[in-house]
Amino acid sequence: MRESELLEHIYARSAGIRASGGWAVVVGPGDDAAVLRSPKGDTLIVTVDQLVEGRHHQTGTAIDLIARKAVARSVSDIAAMGGRPTWATATAVLPPGFTRADELFDRMAHWAGVWGCPLVGGDLATHHSPKHPLTLTVTIAGVPERGPVTRSGARVGDGVYVTGLLGGSLDSGRHLTFDPRVHEAAGLVGVLGDRLHAMIDLSDGLGRDAGRLAAASGVRVEIDAAALPMHPGVLDWNAAMGDGEDYELCFCAEGAVPDAIEGVPITRVGTVVAGSGCVVEALGERHDVSALGWDH
Ligand SMILES: [Mg+2]
After folding, report:
1. Where are the beta strands (DSSP E) in the chain?
2. How remote is the CA of residue 99 from the centroid of ligand 1, in Å?
3. What distance in angstroms lies between residue 28's CA and the mean position of ligand 1's atoms?
4. Range among 34-38, 84-88, 286-290 with highest mean pLDDT value
5. How far is CA 167 from CA 56, 60, 163, 185, 203, in A?
6. pLDDT (average), residues 30-48
7. Do 277 and 222 meet the contact criterion of CB atoms below 8 Å apart?
């Protein structure tokens, strides 16, 4: 089963899910993070993500970079909801004989602190198989700056925007050193307010992720290939939209949007229209790119 099919199954099963103890599920499975409301009215954003050796980083990657990426991926999901990270927990499954767990957790604690979500707990297990990949899981909770901003609020006529530059993340090593767009997301929430309709972070590539946003919102996203902001060395729209692991923000907004936020450029790359899927127009031809990029 493909990851996308499995996730669809989980989302379908979770429709109408309710938490206990008077907590309300504001946003359930299917967005960048879940959103819960306490009986007293406090809103909590929660996300969890894994980092698997051989999948998300190569064997032999520096411990600090592994720890950094494990935390940064979840921080990015909190940012994508327009949230501010507040605390983190982490687990690790170690291959037998792995001797650097102390360093690993020290560095995860360091990076969690950098992004404002101190590591408050965790767990450790050693696998019996020497073939078992080093596997980290990081849960991060956050609070919304306002909102939260989901994937499902895009409206026909909205502009579609991305922060930063796209493409080449794996080849360049940027997938290990990216800065999750926490301050930028907070800035956007502050500047755009209710005109910020939908947001997602780009983990699997703009084609697939904008396709997810389009599906959640019941709209079509049309991308202009010529408008895509690409890292130097990224050759075409296919790479910019399909390489994945950019961890930039893609958002849909109404009205004027600034050219930059917190010093990071913002580029309009398309428009929300009626329909479904994510389509790119390149050299007069249209391509459905909803399935471009990573399917784990
Ligand atoms: Mg995400």
Report:
1. 24-27, 34-37, 43-52, 83-94, 119-126, 135-144, 159-163, 196-201, 220-224, 249-253, 260-261, 264-273, 277-282, 285-288
2. 31
3. 14
4. 84-88
5. 16, 24, 12, 20, 11
6. 94
7. no
Q: Give which of 28, 65, 32, 61 is closest to 49, Cα–Cα.
A: 32
Nearest to 180 by CA among 90, 64, 58, 74: 74
Rounded distance between C-alpha atoms, residue 200 and residue 191, angstroms: 17
Whether 87 shows a pLDDT value over 60: the answer reads: yes
Ordered by where they begin, the domains of the chain are 3-144 (3.30.1330.10), 159-288 (3.90.650.10)
Distance CA 27, CA 153 (A): 12
Q: Collapsing DSSP states into helix, strand and coil, what is residue 260?
A: strand
Beta-bridge partners for 264? 261
Say how many Å lie between the CA of residue 77 and the centre of ligand 1: 5
Q: How far is the CA of 116 from the centre of ligand 1 (A)?
A: 19
- Cα(149)–Cα(153) distance, rounded to whole angstroms? 8
From the CB of residue 54, how many other CB atoms can be counted at a distance below 10 Å?
11
Write the pLDDT tens digit of every residue in 7-29. 777 777 766 777 889 899 999 88
State the pTM of this model: 0.94
Contact 23, 36 (CB under 8 A): yes
